[in-house]
Amino acid sequence: MENKTKQDEQKIEQVKEILKTMNTDFLDHSIIQDNKLYFTHEDKSYRVLMPSPKDLSDAENIRHQHYGQFLVTEGYYLKVVLKKILKEKQGIDIDELEQKKQQINDKLKQVFLNLADLGTSKDEQQIEELKTKINKIQNELIDVNIEIVNYLSPCIEDQVEKKYVEYLTFLCTEKLIDRSSEKYEKVWKDFSVFETDNTKLAIKAINRLTELLLDSREVL
Amino acid sequence: MNLDKNIRKLARSSYYQHLYRISKDINGVSIFQNMNNFSGLQSLFLYWLKVYNILFDELSNKEHDNLTSQVILDDIRVDAFLHYRTQYQQKKLKEYKQKDKEYKLQNRKGKNTTKFQKFPLYTKPSD
């Protein structure tokens, strides 16, 4: 379990880099004023919209189609089966990692309560020390989460989820064609065109749509 | 993610706190341009808008000794305070339930009670 290979560590670093690129350090009202997010790519303006009920229904159909395909395809496993294979063949216990996550969460909660007790305290140093400790524990939690996600990302559930988000991105991304009349049109005419798009635009659009959907994913 | 940090900054800003209070009183004043199909970011923003509204109210009513304006301006300290607040409310609820139970028990003693008995239904006498 502790024998993380160099490859695993490199993967974790790569995911952290991708997370950093998703960080947009701006404070502008446009992120919440409307149910759209605007972005630029190679000096052109784009936007992602919240999906309509029809978009959600179409994306759900794509999810079901791919779920059925993956179930009968060699080399694709459900999460529960993949967990078993990882444990038996690779000595990687996901349940143990989940327990570790819970322990870190409990430790974090205790440190939060210690910080809350210092409410009116003038001891700035103690406050900063606890805040630093909290940041350190939160980073530990992120590392464990990334590790779990990396191990389980090939599972069928995550793969169909990926297709679902990609299909929604294809449906909901538009480019600005006329600034004066604020006219937008779809970026990709067909899902197959989106799937073969190797430019950074597709990745940026997926990131922006994921940000836009955020908490609403649990309902959708 | 900085997105979360920025949404919290917007939510606790005096501009959106005032807009939130006004929108509760005056019909037609809305926080967003869209009236439905809210994005995940908008729903997260609404959550923090409400949280900071409660915190500012509790600060002005001096409900908690460990809540100050410095705490509200610091995201980590707000998270810490919210953990404490949840624990505090659970403790208060437990104390209230216990007091309520004791009060009911005390008031039950020494009072006249009515006993209900089951009487047989009227039956016609046989000839």
Structure write-up:
The complex is a heterodimer of chains A (220) and B (127). The longest helix of chain A has 29 residues. A 4-stranded antiparallel β-sheet of chain A has the order 1-2-3-4. Chain A has 9 helices and 4 strands; from the N terminus they run ααββαααααββαα. In chain A, α1 packs across α6, α3 packs antiparallel against α7 and α7 packs across α9. Chain A has 220 residues and is an alpha+beta fold. Chain B is mostly helical. Chain B is built from 5 helices and no strands. In chain B, α1 crosses α3. Chain B is elongated, with a radius of gyration of 27 Å. The termini of chain B are far apart. The model of chain B has no long low-confidence stretch (mean pLDDT 87). Chains A and B meet through α2, α5, α6 and α9 of A and α1, α3 and α5 of B.
Short description:
With about 220 residues, chain A is of the alpha+beta class.
Structural topology:
The complex is a heterodimer of chains A (about 220) and B (about 130).
Chain A: H1 6-22, H2 30-33, E1 36-41, E2 44-49, H3 53-71, H4 79-90, H5 94-117, H6 124-152, H7 156-172, E3 173-178, E4 183-186, H8 191-195, H9 200-213
Antiparallel strand pairs in A: 1-2, 2-3, 3-4
Helix pairs in contact in A: 1-6, 3-7, 5-6, 7-9
Chain B: H1 2-12, H2 14-25, H3 40-60, H4 69-72, H5 75-108
Key phrases:
A: 220 residues, 4-stranded antiparallel sheet, 4 strands, flat, B: 127 residues, mainly alpha, 5 helices
* Alpha-carbon distance between the two ends of chain A: 35 Å
Secondary structural class of chain A? alpha+beta
Oligomer class:
heterodimer
**Helix share bin of chain A:** 55-70%
CA-based shape of chain A: flat
Question: Percent of residues of chain B in helical segments?
Answer: 55-70%
Low-confidence stretches of chain A: none
Strand residue content of chain B: under 5%
